[in-house]
Each structure stands twice: as structure tokens, then as C-alpha cells.
Amino acid sequence: MQKYDAMYIIRPNVEEEARKNLIAEITKVFTDRNAASVQVKEWGSRKLAYEIEDFKEGYYVDMEVELEDVSALAEYDRVCNIKESILRHIVVKLPSTK
Fold first, then answer.
1. pTM for this entry
2. What's the CA gap between 8 and 56, in Å, rounded?
3. Per CATH, is 2-93 categorized as 3.40.309.10?
4. In Å, how far are 23, 53, 85, 97 from 3, measured between CA atoms?
């Protein structure tokens, strides 16, 4: 199993209920593909390092996932690309602890 850190930034003007549904949908991408563990950390609204689409801040969500099937990463990328509410997203492979 390999660990990954997935982070995405949601537009600040998204309603709270819609934001919670979006976070649940993104989390489901990993749980549906048998992720061993998914830890979601909502960092909340933070100032962006630079403006993205005229927004100066965004709602940050960080997820640590443990996967065997890396197809979940492709699906995460696909879903984040089609969701207009997501400004940016990234996945980083974490070093193994063996």
C-alpha cells in the first residue's frame, strides 16, 4: 500500500451545504475504490498565494489516503477537473515508511 496526500481548493463563494456535499463526493472517489484509509482535514478559508479566477482566498481541504489501486488517483483528477467549484487540486506520493 502506498500513501498519498491529495489537496484541493474550493471556491470561497460555494454555500456550506454544497461544500459539504462536494467534500463527501471527493472522499467517495477513494472509498469506492477500496482505499485502506482516508483522512480528511478541512483547513477552512485561507488566503491564496496568488489570485485564481479573481478569487483571493479559497477553502482548503487536505486528504491523506492509502491505496493499492492507483486508478483512484486518475478518477480523483478527472472529477476535480470537471467540478467548477474546485479551483486547484494536487496529489503527492508520500515517502514509504518501510
1. 0.90
2. 15
3. no
4. 19, 31, 26, 10
